[in-house]
Design goal:
heterodimer, A: 402 residues, MetI-like fold, B: 299 residues, 75% helix
């Protein structure tokens, strides 16, 4: 979603055929500069054509992206109940009244919202590292120079990324059903599999259960301290068994897309660099750690942020597979906002949740911008310093000669 | 690309000669391990699709008692004939109609805008491009309620127009086309301009034919995106007649079928909806891969 800054390098054509594209771009840029010569009458016609050309996109994006956001902002601050137009005279401005039950006023609304944040938080915590690691691992495996069947493996790993999330979700409902594929496999090694999508137990709670700490007798220090309408004991539940199945599904599906990004970056590493390291006799792991990984850093950042932004938006899988259940343990803010509005007709509340989610995602994007810009700026500063130094030492004799 | 690889192989052979036998054994072992991992993971990726295929032809009882087997005990097409008798054909037709309109619209409008942003000089161009970038960063999921509000206000809710028009253009597509148009030389256009051709004429008959690779990429991404789209069709319609495959199949899962798991019919429904995208994928794989990173953004 936040492709633009590192985007151009990742854009279309950068992977398979970088050389000709780059050359063409250079040629185009050069000519563009020449074009800047004034041209009189043609200018106006071009200006008109320009606006005409962008107008359809402008209308669609404006009407169904910008206007909706403003309208939803109004609804989130109003008491509209879904009847009639939100701009009719019966609808009133209520200030932050839709936000406070979610954030500050204790009650069911708050504990539901906090539960959804907890669930999504664990989901992010598990999905982002797992999918990034799997994608990187797959890219490294598939990138082997003399690998046979490269195309086949790439296709196999990437295919789930292009298929419908609904279709994949239904297939996984079957795979993780109580008498399904996973449980049959587990039965073969003598393990009694759980009833995946009906099991609300958190995995950290389950792990603690092994030490005799469980839901029947949670430590009072945890059970009695409440933050945001949830007890500490509830906060530390970990993702539920049902959520784990969704985590597996999502990691499995998205790793292929990110694998392609890593692959494009791996192919941009000059061969000489790796060869030099190889001739120096560095081991495989050291080569990866000190040569490959540093060069993959920008892509790694990109994949992590795209993951961070994407995982806060999980909706399709929840809608198809669990609708927030069992016991609200797969409820996420995105699904809660849908449910509050479309099912419960609490439109102000649903919109408020959507805007809080928006804020979370914007914060993630800004965090990434900050981390990336910090590096670029430092690099740019170093470059200017170097240039200035070079200019100073170079200008000495010149001024002397003059 | 191919010369690159030849070089790689040659260089590789060189280093192997120099390497002593110990590392050669080591590399053979790692190669075997590598292949084992590749094949094992490939199985993990392919098996679910095989299960999907096999279960579609099973009976309900067979699917429940032998979930692992890739061969139906009693081969039956009952699931498919039940789907044919139900609303499934209608969902399929709706998906086809919506996807075709959305794909055509995106390809045409996105390339028009991409061309203008790449080539035409007009006041406000820089601001517009910045706006397109900003729009790409808006998370789609927070637009669920807002989109419904506007469609409702405009009287487009629960209609084909409400399902199609909001998807007719997307920022990511504009971005892809702009990038591409910037990469092709201007000389031909200039020649046409000197001949007195209008801007649209130049765009239509000179530039677009040169943009074939990017157009194919955008066509595929648009088709795949609209075929697989779920949230927009949840919030833009409610009538069962307007169900697309995504919303229709989702409703199958949430208890439309009545009692029992009935996995064969559910999986048959997902199998049929996967086929069109799969065909496009295998036919135009390279374009998928090329657009993969840019296409990761929904929008």
């Amino acid at each position: 979603m936040s492709e633009p800054n590192p985007g151009p390098a990742q854009g279309p054509g950068s992977g398979p055929a970088p050389a000709p594209t780059a050359a063409a771009a250079k040629a185009g840029g050069g000519r563009g500069r020449r074009n800047r010569a004034p041209r009189g009458g043609i200018r106006d016609r071009e200006g008109l054509a320009g606006w005409l050309f962008v107008s359809p996109v402008l209308v669609v994006l404006g009407l169904f992206l910008v206007v909706p956001i403003l309208m939803a902002l109004w609804v989130s601050l109003s008491d509209w109940n879904g009847q009639g137009s939100p701009f009719s005279s019966g609808v009133h401005f209520v200030g932050a009244q839709n936000y406070s039950p979610l954030l500050t006023k204790s009650g069911l609304t708050q504990s539901d919202f906090m539960t959804s944040l907890r669930n999504n938080g664990y989901y992010v915590l598990f999905v982002v590292p797992l999918q990034t690691a799997l994608a990187l691992g797959l890219a490294l495996l598939v990138n082997g120079r003399r690998l046979k069947g490269k195309g086949f493996f790439r296709t196999a790993y990437y295919f789930p990324s292009v298929t419908s999330s609904v279709a994949i979700s239904v297939v996984f409902l079957f795979i993780f059903s109580s008498s399904g594929v996973v449980n049959s496999l587990l039965a073969k090694v003598g393990v009694d599999g759980p009833a995946w999508f009906a099991d609300p137990r958190g995995v950290i709670h389950l792990a603690l259960g092994a030490f005799g700490i469980n839901n029947d007798a949670p430590p009072s220090a945890l059970a009695d301290t409440t933050i945001g309408g949830l007890s500490l004991w509830d906060w530390i539940s970990g993702p539920s068994v049902a959520m784990c199945a969704i985590i597996v599904l999502v990691v499995w599906t998205t790793a292929g897309t990110f694998m392609l990004m890593f692959l494009a970056a791996l192919q941009d590493i000059p061969l000489e660099v790796e060869e030099a390291a190889e001739i120096d006799g560095t081991g495989r792991w050291q080569r990866f750690r000190h040569v490959t990984l540093p060069m993959l850093k920008p892509t790694l950042f990109l994949v992590l942020t795209l993951g961070l932004i994407g995982t806060w938006q999980v909706f399709d899988q929840i809608y198809v597979m669990t609708r927030g259940g069992p016991a609200k343990t797969t409820m996420t803010p995105a699904f809660l906002s849908y449910q509050s509005s479309f099912i419960n007709n609490e439109w102000g509340q649903g919109s408020a949740i959507a805007f809080i989610l928006f804020a979370i995602i914007v914060a993630m994007t800004l965090l990434q911008r900050f981390v990336l810009r910090d590096k670029d700026e430092a690099k740019a500063k170093a470059a200017t310093r170097r240039a200035a130094k070079a200019a100073r030492s170079g200008s000495g004799p010149t001024t002397g000669a003059a | 690309m191919s010369t690159h690889h030849k070089n790689a192989d040659a260089a590789d052979a060189g280093t192997t000669h120099r390497a002593d036998s110990r590392t050669r054994h080591g590399s053979r072992l790692t190669r075997v391990l590598g292949y084992t991992a590749l094949v094992a993971i490939a199985l993990l990726y392919i098996y679910p699709f095989l299960i999907q295929l096999a279960t579609s032809f099973k009976t309900d009882a067979d699917a429940t008692s032998h979930p692992l087997s890739l061969w139906p005990q009693h081969f039956t097409t009952a699931a498919f004939s039940r789907l044919a008798d139900a609303d499934y054909p209608r969902w399929f037709a709706n998906s086809v109609v919506v996807s075709l309109f959305v794909t055509a619209g995106r390809v045409f409008f996105d390339s028009l805008a991409g061309y203008a942003l790449a080539r035409l000089r007009f006041p406000g161009r820089g601001t517009l491009f910045a706006a397109v970038i900003a729009v790409m960063a808006v998370p789609g999921v927070v637009l669920l309620i807002p989109k419904f509000l506007v469609l409702n206000q405009l009287g487009m809710y629960d209609s084909y127009s409400g399902m199609i028009v909001p998807l007719l253009a997307n920022a990511a597509g504009v971005f892809i086309m702009k990038q591409f148009f910037e990469s092709i030389p201007v000389s031909v256009e200039e020649a046409a301009r000197i001949d007195g051709a209008s801007t649209f004429r130049i765009f239509w008959s000179v530039v677009l034919p040169m943009a074939r690779p990017a157009l194919i990429t955008l066509t595929i991404l648009s088709f795949q995106g609209s075929w697989n789209e779920l949230p927009h069709f949840i919030v833009s319609r409610q009538s069962p007649d307007l169900n697309t495959l995504t919303t229709g199949v989702a409703s199958l899962v949430s208890g439309q079928l009545g009692l029992g798991n009935q996995y064969p019919i559910k999986l048959a429904a997902t199998l049929l909806m996967t086929i069109p995208v799969a065909l496009v994928f295998f036919a135009f794989q390279r374009h998928f891969v090329r657009g993969g990173t840019a296409g990761a953004t929904k929008g």
